[in-house]
Design goal:
- With 430 residues, the protein is of the alpha/beta class.
- It has three domains: 2-26 and 286-429, Rossmann fold (3-Layer(aba) Sandwich); 30-151, Rossmann fold (3-Layer(aba) Sandwich); 177-283, Nitrogenase molybdenum iron protein domain (Rossmann fold).
- The protein has 18 helices and 15 strands.
- The chain has helices at 34-40, 52-62, 79-82, 88-102, 115-119, 124-134, 155-164, 186-198, 232-240, 253-266, 272-278, 280-294, 311-322, 340-346, 358-368, 377-385, 395-398, 407-424; strands at 2-5, 18-22, 44-50, 72-76, 108-113, 140-145, 177-181, 204-207, 222-226, 244-245, 301-304, 325-331, 352-356, 372-375, 390-392.
- The strands form three sheets. It has a seven-stranded mixed sheet with strand order 1-2-13-12-11-14-15, sandwiched between helices. Strands 4-3-5-6 form a four-stranded parallel sheet, with helices on both faces. A four-stranded parallel sheet has the order 8-7-9-10, sandwiched between helices.
- β3, α2 (52-62) and β4 form a beta-alpha-beta unit.
- α7 packs parallel to α9 (232-240), α10 (253-266) packs across α13 (311-322) and α12 (280-294) packs parallel to α18.
- It starts with a strand and ends in a 6-residue tail after the last helix.
- Residues 1-8 have low confidence and may be disordered.
Length: 430
């Protein structure tokens, strides 16, 4: 079922109208977020309370070898658990005690809910509080949901970070500090720190940090800027702690990254032109590297199916900086506050869809036959069989794509399937 809803600002004709769809969808669940979160928070452990299917998903997604010891596992809910014939809490206490005895290096333990645990109404928040009391001096324990019943896979990170916000130390200091919110690769964090230092912004924290105990302080002087667009609950939790959200585009592409730094620097009294001058060298380097890839993309059409919530900023980058044509930009959820700057840049002439009705969405892809479709892995193979080139959206989460120095790599992710098609000369079947 589809319907057109009002623009975010009814008086602003420059914003795109948004069509909402409700129906069948095909996305990974929030458990998938554990794969990049456990790579980022290096002394955390993620204990999924779920089924064998959950365990198989995680092992397959991570590509974990059988002799490796990852920092995630699944406490299997069996038939007796699902039928209410066993004490799940007692068993969970035992599993956690054994885990901590075997892994003394763990500094934070996440209890991660799944579809089965939510169906039987297993209260993992209370379980985390009880276990925190038992192991209080040993580590921090919290819980979040990775269920896919109502969410898409990137929202697992949102739930995870929101569960950590109550643990952030409070500071009475009203001096300004900046927190960059959203998981980034270590190399991107290092680059961003250098750029902030060039702008005179030295009090910068990244959340999450590489170590569980490295928690940023938060107070009335805290400014937060998002590196990822799917963190609505985390933003709300930080705002309740007194933090102020900096409205900005997302650091994807040259102009997106520049706009992101300009928005942050404006909080410290720097104007946009001075930021451009201070970052002139990485801007020039990024523009030069992008030019080598743009040739493969310009003039080609691209269609976004809803999957990651990165769709709108990616569409803006590919249209404005790579000269691609947008046939449709669909996203699973649209937080118009967090996406306000991107919607403004996207403009009114772009078709934006929130939600999914899988049959309708696929029908539009087949009708428009774009040169490239960005979608989930489960949808990609059938489209490829029909001669339509695809790009897995999940790859954009696992790959460092933010910042100036990653611009060419970002564009290359979209250019690669098109270049491969030409080299293999398989486009004749279209």
């Amino acid at each position: 079922m589809s319907q057109v809803i009002a623009r975010a600002d009814p008086d602003n004709a420059a914003l795109p109208s948004v069509t909402t769809e409700r129906g069948e969808r095909a996305v990974f669940c929030g458990l998938t977020s554990i794969i990049w979160l456990h790579r980022r928070i290096q002394d955390a452990f993620f204990l999924v309370v779920g089924s064998r299917t959950c365990a198989h998903l995680l092992q397959s997604a991570a590509g974990v070898m059988i002799f490796a010891e990852p920092r995630f596992a699944t406490a299997i809910l069996g038939e007796r658990d699902l039928a209410g014939m066993a004490d799940c809490h007692e068993e969970l206490d035992r599993v956690v005690s054994e885990l901590l005895a075997r892994r003394p290096d763990i500094r934070r333990l996440f209890l991660v809910g799944s579809c089965p645990s939510e169906v039987i109404k297993l209260d993992l928040a209370n379980a985390a509080a009880r276990l925190q009391g038992i192991h209080n001096n040993r580590l921090r324990i919290s819980a979040f949901s990775g269920s896919g019943i109502e969410t898409t896979f990137t929202q697992g990170e949102d739930q995870c970070l929101a569960s950590m916000v109550p643990d952030l130390p409070e500071t009475p200091d009203t001096s300004q500090r900046l927190i960059v919110v959203g998981t980034l690769a270590d190399i991107v964090e290092e680059q961003f720190r250098r750029h902030f230092a060039q702008l005179g912004i030295n009090e910068v924290d990244f959340f999450p940090a590489a170590r569980a105990d490295d928690l940023p302080v938060v107070g009335s002087g805290t400014r937060i800027i998002l590196a990822q667009p799917y963190l609505s609950d985390t933003v709300s939790a930080l705002q309740k702690r007194g933090a102020k959200l900096v409205a900005a585009p997302y650091p994807l592409g040259v102009e997106g990254t520049l706009g992101w730094f300009q928005a942050a620097a404006a909080e410290w009294g720097r104007n946009a032109e001075s930021v451009r001058e201070a970052l002139a060298i990485p801007i020039a380097r990024a523009g030069k590297s992008l030019a080598k890839v743009r040739e493969s993309l310009q003039g080609r059409s691209i269609h976004f199916l809803p999957d990651s919530q990165l769709e709108i900023p990616l569409a803006r980058f590919l249209r404005d900086e790579c000269s691609m044509t947008l046939t449709e930009v669909a996203t699973p959820y649209l937080d118009q506050t967090l996406m306000a700057e991107e919607l403004q840049r996207l403009g009114a002439d772009v078709s934006v869809v929130e939600g999914s009705d899988l049959d309708s969405a696929l029908a539009r892809v087949r009708s428009r036959r774009p040169d490239l479709t960005v979608c989930g892995m489960g949808i990609a193979n059938p489209l490829e069989a029909e001669g339509l080139r695809t790009k897995w959206s999940i790859e954009l989460i696992f790959t460092p794509i933010q910042g100036f120095d990653q611009v060419a790599d970002l564009a290359g992710l979209f250019a690669r399937p098109l270049v491969r098609e030409r080299k293999l000369e398989v486009g004749s079947w279209n």
